[in-house]
Specification:
With 237 residues, this protein is an all-beta fold. It has a domain of 70 residues. The chain is 0% helix and 38% strand. It contains no helices and 19 strands. The protein starts with 12 loop residues before the first strand and ends in a 9-residue tail after the last strand.
């Protein structure tokens, strides 16, 4: 067992121990691989020596005993390396690789981010990529489906006006015509309030002449909201 204050290391500190056997009256010892100045502990036959009182180590390569060793004395040099953390981010490093997942709880700022683009698809066909999706206007919703964001855009899609667009026969492009169903069903509870139908007084409208509400389903019109069915009076046509 070594005599003297033991050396305690954490898992993040690298160290190595080099042992040599002294010859008679030897004072100068070369440490294989060198050491960092002030980062070496010296033991003589298991007893830790004091830097400056028992030895000097100032050149990063050799250790000099102030009292000569006897033949057969065992000198141990315990060398401490730099603090290291696996896969650490190195300051001012040109390139580096981090193995495994990287979790950031704050904000990541950079001029170029590779691999962070969002693929944009239309009807299942990839049309491009972007870093940001910006939803403009009301009635736009999105839902997560695995790694995919399904985006729903409310409102008419016809080139000729309200309703659902009618595509050309030979392509999926919208023609100048659209259609409006005569009947539609409400199958889930709904409430028109400041969360779903505008922050202020507003009018909730439908262009469909006949709205059927399933049994057991409630449609609630909140304060300041007015609901109008068949706002275009299509049912009179």
């Amino acid at each position: 067992m070594a005599i003297g204050r033991p050396v305690s290391l954490t898992s993040n500190v690298a160290s190595k121990t080099i042992s040599v056997t002294a010859t008679a009256s030897q004072t100068l010892f070369t440490v294989t691989g060198g050491y960092r100045i002030n980062q070496v502990a010296v033991f003589r036959n298991g007893v830790r020596l004091a830097d400056g009182s028992d030895f000097t180590a100032r050149d990063g390569a050799t250790v000099t005993l102030l009292s000569a060793a006897s033949a057969g004395d065992v000198l141990e040099f315990q060398i401490f390396d730099d603090f290291r953390v696996a896969d650490a981010i190195i300051n001012a490093s040109a390139e580096q690789t981090i193995n495994g997942n990287l979790t950031v709880t704050g904000t990541v700022t950079g001029s170029t981010v590779t691999g962070a683009a969002i693929g944009i698809s239309s009807a299942g066909t990839v049309v491009g990529a972007a870093k940001t999706l910006n939803f403009i206007g009301t009635g736009n919703t999105f839902a997560m489906s695995g790694d995919t964001v399904n985006i729903s855009i409310a409102g008419g899609g016809g080139g000729g006006g309200l309703g659902t667009a009618i595509a050309y026969e030979t392509s999926s492009d919208a023609s100048p015509f659209s259609y409006i169903d005569r009947y539609a069903k409400v199958s889930e509870n709904m409430i028109f309030n400041t969360t779903t139908a505008g922050l202020n007084t507003s009018i909730v409208v439908s262009v469909i002449p006949n709205i059927e509400i399933n049994s057991g389903v409630a449609v609630t019109v909140g304060a300041g909201k007015t609901m109008i069915i068949d706002v275009l009076q299509i049912g009179d046509l």
